[in-house]
Queue: 2 jobs
Job 1
Amino acid sequence: MSQQGYVAAPPYSQAQAGMGGYSAGFGNPPPQSHYGAYGSPPQGYSAPPTGVLKPPASSSSGMPPPPVSSQYGANIQQNGAHHHSFPPPVASAPSMSPYGQPPQSAFYSMAQAPPPTQQLTNQMSAMNIGGYVGVFYTHALSAAPQQYHTSPPPAMGHPPLSPPGQQLSSFGSPPPMATMGSVAAPPMGMSGPPGPGVHQPPLGPQGYPQQPGPQMAGPQSGAFQGGFPGGPAQMAGPPQKKLDPDSIPSTTQVIEDDQAKRGGQVYVTNIRGQVPPLVTTDFTVQDQGNASPRFMRCTTYSFPSTADLAKQCKVPLAAIIKPFATVPKNETPLYIVNHGETGPIRCNRCKAYMCPYMQFMDGGRRYQCGFCSCVNEVPVQYFQHLDHMGRRMDLYERPELSLGSYEFIATLDYCKNNKPPNPPAYIFMIDVSYNNIKSGLVKLICEELKTLLDRLPKEEGAETSPIKVGFVTYNKILHFYNVKSALAQPQMMVVSDVAEMFVPLLDGFLVNFQESRAVVNNLLDQIPDMFADTNESETVFAPVIQAGVEALKAAECSGKLFIFHSSIPTAEAPGKLKNRDDRKLVGTEKEKTLFQPLRGVYEQLTKDCVAQGCCVDLFLFPNQYVDIATVGDVPSHTGGSIYKYSNFQVEVNGQQFVSDLRRDVEKSIGFDAIMRVRTGTGFRATDFFGAVYMNNTTDVEMAAVDCDKAVTVEFKHDDTLSEESGAVMQCALLYTTIGGQRRLRIHNLSLNCSSQLSELYKSCETDALINFFAKSAYRAMLNQPLKTVREILVNQTAHMLACYRKHCASPSAASQLILPDAMKVFPVYMNSLLKTPTLVGSTELSTDDRAFHRLLVNAMGVEETQVLLYPRLIPLHTMDVSSDAIPAPVRCSEERLSESGIFLLENGLSMFLWLGQACPPDLIQNLFNVPSLGHLSSEGMSLPVLDNAHSRKIHSIISSISQQRATSMKLLIVKQKDRSEMLFRQHLVEDKGLHGGASYMDFLCYVHREIRQLLT
Ligand SMILES: [Zn+2]
């Protein structure tokens, strides 16, 4: 594309000397390099170049005293009689442990640190830090002395050995709300029998909450139970610790509190560095100079002023940008600005676009750039007088002077070959091999398209869509269709030479659906019959994409390919694949190769697609391994989406697929996009994560970008930031509208800067942080062993929290875990991330599922990663059928389930209805129209629509949730203790993972111990 006038070489694009050590990022590092913020090795904390965790610079001074308001205080419950109980001994299977790793592992080695004391601390205290509340609980896990066996050290997957006689602590509850400072609660019963006889916990009945009562930890039990050897036996297994779960920070509480505090309000974006409401909160945005958080969210709204501070705290500085985010109907859509033939006004030096951060001077004749400080002449046609405040008189008449987000009409300089673009085209490419015909999929697609093509996206106010459509079917060979309106019948043209793909017809391939409706519908009627008797089971794949790109090239337009594909492409052709799903690699250094796409043909295809503005959406219907890592590679670099319906059956998944297809076809989208993020002096964008393609270090290319796609951008310092001017950023996205107009969408955001780390921690956004960590870890795992990636995540968590403790918190007992208020639920998200199928590394998980999950997350925005990593668990048995509201979710733990209850769980990708064994028969009758749970078969249950209040209410909740999500979720109904309950339980993220991974409580203990280690 022509980048004239758009891409300039800014003064910042060069890597600065001295930055090397800390800009390593995750891109293809040398074999030994480590992923991690600032490129330091995982263990680097102990010997960082600049002395991480210098003695605290008394930054806690100047903080207001605490109006303590711990939400954990209300629920004091002393579980004195309960001990930590640990999972039963596990025979083996360390390899399945997420933390199963050699003795040297940083993750485990921390656990061996001699504790400062053996005394069991059982106090709980609350303290207030700088006006925000720390979290406070005490436990004695860190008091693990030498008894932690080090030789041979158990892997995390093995329950480590517990020190004899050492009972592991309870978490107490914080003192009552008004209490300030550190208050010791009465000791809790840690009365484990001393001596070598360690305690064996009784197995909980089916893993459900234990009855209170003393429990013993088993000989192999340990302080931090990492792994969970999968299998139903274990599922029934280890009882949870009998600690008061209410004493640890609760995500549902944090969400509820924010909703109560900021829900229903108007969020006005006129204040620099203002932290927006949580993504889960329902609020309205009024743009007054900064982009809506729907478009941009940051990991912190106060950047540290120096690189040293950034390095010290290790909190990633990042923005998650969703340039096409859907704007609710009650908010103003973006204004479109036309600066005429000269194009948008830009800074001469850094090429930033006119925005509220430009400072006018000299009576309005010149302006100083808010990004690079260059002073520019105001073009004559743009001149305007200034008022007595030095503001332009037309400030409020010009969106680009007063708003955070707006669009410019781009001139021909911004177009390929200086020619206005043609409207884009959508090409539907249907795999008509045996499986897809037999399953009824081909018929379903053809039927659906007949109505769907009337709903192609339109320009505002237009009658019809300018998008052209084309059709291809394929198995080992490709069939193109001429559907020109003048024809009485569609014509098929076959290309069997898939090695040299070409498009056999130009005229009549891409048509306007309105004009060619009759011929197209005729074709769609015929396709299922044409291939009804096929025996062909082999398919090609790369040539299909190639054909699509060639067609768009020939038509000189951008567009999107909708590929409906079912099997691994084994037919003789470029991009032919073979099964490389070797589960023996799981847990080894080579595990990463399972997720690395095969390069070669696919790499070239990606380049071709991006150059042409050809986005690839892939709908997969696999019955077995299809190598998603490879077939998903082109979609995941072209702004495309990937959908997967395993073992597709029309009756089972048909509706879900059709909903996804409709939404995908209809959604708002821009084509042939290139994005650039400019920043103020002192920092710059260094890394980008998303369904994007990077040809150089600064231009983010997207063949298309739709309302669901988010790009996560990491920033690094290259100089000191000024506290006075703050940190400003401008995201400029050049794209082609569906009508073929070239436009620039601009999002501006200004953050604060501070030399006080307490400001940074106060302004953190946990949901944005976890989005960054998820994407960066999922990229890092392509180059490093998963074990290393997991270790780095854990270490960085401990570092961030230790730094807070050291530099920002008031002095307090070492036994207290103190978390920044804005990050108090960060550990539960981090632990959940570590347990995701992609990162957990279990041979029981399908490689394709893991690769699929990896690619999905890569394109996600903050809202999607939030609910994915902390699903909503909604009790339905207690709901008020007369209210419209969705009942308040409870914490994602089996302890919150009740046998007499019914719960809905959703994470944006899956939805479950869980039926407790003892749920009331009248509720079952109302929902399923059967007299009792026993009358429901365990397989293939569905939720009928019945004419009663309960049924209506549940269906209304489900549909309201579905509307909030980017993909449609198939409702899976599970009965307590049925086999399928496993699928549900893996989403209870506060519990121990079914395939490995610690419970929230254990993870918090582990992190706490690491923090203490770091602080000593
Ligand atoms: Zn500038």
Job 2
Amino acid sequence: MGFIRLLYTSLFVLLATTLLSAQSTYWQQSVKYNMDVDFDVNKHQFTGDQTIIYTNNSPDTLTRIFYHLYFNAFQPNSMMDIRSRTIRDADSRVADRISGLKPNEIGYQEVESLTQDGTPAPYVVAGTILEVELPNAILPGASTELKMKFRGQVPLQIRRSGRDNREGISYSMAQWYPKLAEYDYQGWHANPYIAREFHGIWGDFDVNITIDKDYLVGGTGYLQNKEEIGGTYNDGKPGTATGKTRTYRFSAPMVHDFMWAADPDYKHTTLTRADGNVLHFYYQEGDATTTNWELLPGIMDKAFEFINANYGYYPYKKYSFIQGGDGGMEYPMGTLITGERSLNSLVGVSVHELMHSWYQMVLATNESLYAWMDEGFTSYASDEVMNYLRQEGLIQGDVVADPHLSDVTGFLNFVKSGMEEPLSIHADHFSTNAAYGVGSYVKGSLFLYQLQYILGQETFKSGLLRYFNTWKFKHPNPNDVIRVMEKESGLELDWFKEYFVYTTRLPDYGIEGVEEGEKKKTTVVQLKNSGTMPMPVDITVTMVNGDKEYYTIPLGIMRGAKQAEGGKTYQVAPDWPWTNPTYELTLDTAIKRISSIEIDDSRRMLDTDRSNNSWKADDK
Ligand SMILES: [Zn+2]
């Protein structure tokens, strides 16, 4: 008995410990890249030597491994080409352009040799994915060395990376090297590249790029050999390197990708911020660029100040705004943006891509699965940054009280088109580019805006900061951001995540009637949810004398309520059970004292029909 009992007890303890650790132990793979790249600017080709130290921090034994070979997408009949030629609303930057690429215009990444710890590793190229059978399985906790020789050709620019973009920038080098696919708690993410979204392994990059001496190179990471390169990289002093080429040695600690760009005509300026963070700007001088690019550094200095204070402190000491690419795209410690823009447009794209340093480059969500967590959160914060810059008089435009309100109307209009799809769809698999775009950028931003409504402005704001500080340098998922918000507010919020992310349901609250209560000096407001999603309901009662009273009706499943925000105190009404279509709110005020009653006068809640949201005494 004693023995059996002991056995049971230890089994139980063992089981409990295992379960506990499976739920609470976060792990992520780690990687160290060392790359030497030799670039030929005449052929637009390069060769590379890559050494990767890969550490398997997962509890699983890995027998295979995958690399992304993104440049292979830029070949006629690739998945990206077919997708672009068959989707209903193709991106005009891609359209059918890949199908017309000539052999010297296509992109490719070719593997010349691959070894694991010195043993040749067999591999198969499947479009943009390299499938590798490992000679030696990687055990949990073990590290392995992967050595590769590769060569590549830079495609004529179609999307994001490539050569000779429409503004004449020679090389926009993103997704240019064989990049290990990420393995996490959801398994492998060896997604074929069809034009959007990335997910990478956290690690350190040392990248040495050898290129014609006339080209200036900027990119992710800190330049290690400023004296050799000289010029704008070393206070105008001539570089010590000689010969026809220059080797730029970059080191980037704790990032999950590496981008660079090169052009013989780059003008390169820097601004050192008060905290030592150095901002770099690279652009081709001209009528369409110079004036605005000279104003950009001062404006971005102010943007950094506001962003650091509100969304978490930028953890690197360098950021580069580089003219290149095909619009704007975010990378670790820098961005590639087109540069021939009005000042407002240049600042807009710069702020958006910079904001991605928080939502994607530091809070590295899997963009393929949760594009809305980086595009949406970035859009949310960018709207506030832009409003601040307008307020400071640094860019033109009207300062608005709430920069998120316009998203509500925009989104509800899109919903009417019938094209909306749930946020939970994999970014590559949305039926239309429009559904992906509105879902990721707008509904993703509204995800935060709805939380701001549910939690109240101050609690939400501190929650967003807590999210950054809890999850920086990791891969947060939707549950992680919701859990942080739950801890910050003390409210249960799983219902919100489930409705908002996995469905397209929305609430539609309305006032059905207002009448004198049975008890003297009370008023009863009859409310109804005609929609398909529950939400807590804020009610503003305006008295005849102009005074206002604020009520909030929490959902029972929130297990709590918003108490106050923005100087307002809410009277917390009894819970509204989500099963009940209707609800009666009793006000301790005689009806004759009331001038009007309105549901959510902040207009933040995504209510599909606001026509029935208010009642006026005159309407009786
Ligand atoms: Zn973005």
